[in-house]
Design brief:
Elements lengths: L1 E3 L6 H15 L6 E4 L3 H8 L5 E3 L2 H6 L1 H10 L4 E4 L5 H10 L4 E6 L10 H7 L4 E4 L2 H10 L7 E3 L15 H10 L7 E6 L8 H14 L5 E6 L10 H13 L6 E5 L4 H7 L2 E4 L8 H8 L3 E5 L13 E4 L4 H13 L1 H18 L2 H13 L7
Parallel strand pairs: 1-2, 1-4, 2-3, 4-5, 5-6, 6-7, 8-9, 8-11, 9-10, 11-12, 12-13
Length: 374
């Protein structure tokens, strides 16, 4: 059973519905527990699972008898939590039903120690804690009251097939025009939630400096991400970004594309993808862009340097607009370099970051005997 009691919508919340079809394909029978009327619950339905639902996280604790009965009826022996707050429920269920194996993925990258009596009790019932990068694993080792052997790095993965090019040359040009990209311009995209930690402000400053220092270069920026709180973005931040773009005279050179469900196709319209996030716990957008064969410029912080090297992209400090301008300029002027980096990036994803391999590793963990975790 995948447990995610969240009303939000981000990588953490998307994860259960992303892995469920592959779990089914590899022979497992997945179930879900979610909040009623949440996007998580809807995504589980779309993935072919009718989730057990509760109204609020506290109500889940009150519904423990009902949940235990569901686990018994469906012979569920593995629980997998995705929010730290959900471990209260997971640990309680594991305590009340000996034999349940409890797993937890730290999607966010813990920053504070969790070694007080409550956390020792809750994490003491965790069979395995998954860190989604080596950067988060090092933080996990310091923060959690678990033996090192119970904390494993398990990179996320994607199905690369949707990111293979599909558009004809004519359809690609139509899509580029709809995004405001002029003919012959190098399209530089930044996908992700519009919130301060994602680095859009630094990217805009970098484009301004690029326009000043290399006025001969033809480029167009595309910001991809929801523009409202309901779409996961910070509306005050979005307004500040718009004001800054206007103040810098870049309104004709930067498009706010809004929330899009067709990201694999949008990647086809782009030539360069930027991910200037300050402290990514993994970098799902990075591997999506790499799977699409794009040259990526990523922040040299958090987990992103684990995904990109000199043969697959470029790195720049997340708070250094001049370095970002320089990295983008290098890629703007050299189409051959963009192509070589993109091809290498695509090969790396198929080798190291597929959803099939991720779920196979997950199932291997689900399947081992408890004694083997000691």
């Amino acid at each position: 059973m995948q447990i995610c009691l969240s009303h939000g919508w981000g990588g953490l919340e998307m994860y259960p519905s992303r892995i469920i079809p592959e779990l089914k394909r590899q022979g497992w029978q997945p179930h879900g527990l979610a909040l009623a009327d949440s996007r998580v619950a809807a995504s589980l339905e779309e993935a072919g699972v009718s989730p057990l639902v509760v109204s609020t996280p506290p109500r889940a604790l009150l519904a423990v008898v009902r949940i235990l009965a569901y686990l018994k009826t469906h012979d569920i022996r593995v629980l997998h939590c995705h929010k730290s707050g959900d471990l209260r429920l997971g640990a309680l269920l594991a305590a009340l039903r000996p034999g349940l194996r409890l797993f937890y993925t730290d999607h966010m990258g813990v920053t504070r120690p969790k070694k007080d009596p409550y956390h020792r009790w809750a994490y003491g019932r965790v069979t395995r804690l998954f860190s989604i990068s080596e950067a988060t694993r090092q933080r996990n080792l310091a923060a959690f009251p678990l033996p090192d052997a119970r904390i494993r790095r398990l990179y996320l993965g994607i199905d690369p097939s949707p990111y293979a090019p599909e558009l004809s040359a004519e359809a690609r040009e139509v899509l580029r025009a709809s995004l405001g990209i002029p003919g012959g311009a190098v399209a530089i995209g930044l996908p992700g939630r519009l919130t301060p930690g994602k680095g859009q402000a630094v990217w805009i400053e970098a484009l301004s400096r690029l326009a000043e220092s290399r006025p001969e270069l033809r480029w167009h920026g595309v910001l991809i991400g929801g523009l409202t709180a309901g779409e996961g973005s910070n509306e005050a931040y979005v307004a500040a970004l718009r004001e800054r773009v206007a103040a810098l005279g870049l309104e004709s050179r930067i498009t706010f594309a809004g929330f899009r469900r067709d990201l694999p196709r949008l990647f086809e319209a782009l030539d360069v993808v930027c991910v200037p996030s300050r402290n990514e716990a993994f970098g799902l957008t990075v591997i999506e862009a790499m799977a699409a064969g794009k040259a990526v410029v990523g922040a040299d912080s958090g987990a992103i340097p684990e995904l990109i090297d000199a043969g697959t992209g470029r790195l720049a400090p997340p708070e250094a607009p001049d370095a970002w301008a320089e990295a983008m300029a290098e890629l703007i002027v050299d189409a051959g370099l963009r192509r070589r980096l993109g091809e290498s990036a695509r090969r790396r994803i198929r080798r190291d970051f597929t959803l099939e391999a991720h779920v196979a590793a997950l199932i291997e963990e689900y399947s081992v005997n408890e004694s083997e975790f000691e």
